[in-house]
Design brief:
Number of domains: 1
CATH superfamily: 2,3-Dihydroxybiphenyl 1,2-Dioxygenase, domain 1
CATH topology: 2,3-Dihydroxybiphenyl 1,2-Dioxygenase, domain 1
Largest sheet: 4 strands, mixed
Strand order of the largest sheet: 1-4-3-2
CATH architecture: Roll
Number of strands: 8
CATH class: Alpha Beta
Helix content: 10-25%
Distance between the termini: 35 Å
Order of helices and strands: EHEEEEHEEE
Radius of gyration: 16 Å
Number of helices: 2
Shape: globular
Oligomer: single chain
Structural class: alpha/beta
């Protein structure tokens, strides 16, 4: 099987509220809009907010959206200026990443991650 592209599709209970959260609260850029939803750029991926298929009681999303940011302190300042509640303040995890946790209006967990300069994910492994 060859995967050509991917995206995460969310079907919120309240489309307009969730659309405003991702567009205005998180400040994600719109990749495209269509009659039944909006697709946002999210780094190397896409997040689609569908205006169809949601219910008053959202299904359980037992995962998280992992969004890497360049500077976690700047991200915190933006979130606070937009009134987005932070569930857990940024802290360095035992595995070395700096993570901040929040949730979208339907409770979908979102992890904002900063990769410190000294972390192995930043190490240049090419032979010189």
């Amino acid at each position: 099987m060859e995967i050509l592209s991917s995206r995460t599709i969310l079907r919120p209970a309240d489309y307009e509220r969730t659309l405003a959260f991702y567009r205005d609260g998180l400040g994600l850029a719109i990749a495209r809009e269509y009659r039944a939803g909006t697709v946002f750029f999210a780094g190397q991926s896409l997040i689609e907010i569908a205006a169809h298929g949601g219910s008053e009681v959202p299904t359980i999303f037992d995962g998280a959206l992992w969004l890497q940011v360049r500077d976690i302190d700047s991200a915190v300042a933006e979130l606070e200026s937009r009134g987005i509640p932070i569930e857990r303040e940024a802290q360095q995890e035992p595995w070395g990443l700096v993570e901040l946790w929040l949730r979208d209006p339907d409770g979908v967990p979102i992890v904002l991650v900063e990769i410190p300069a000294e972390h192995p994910l930043r190490r240049d492994v090419r032979k010189t």
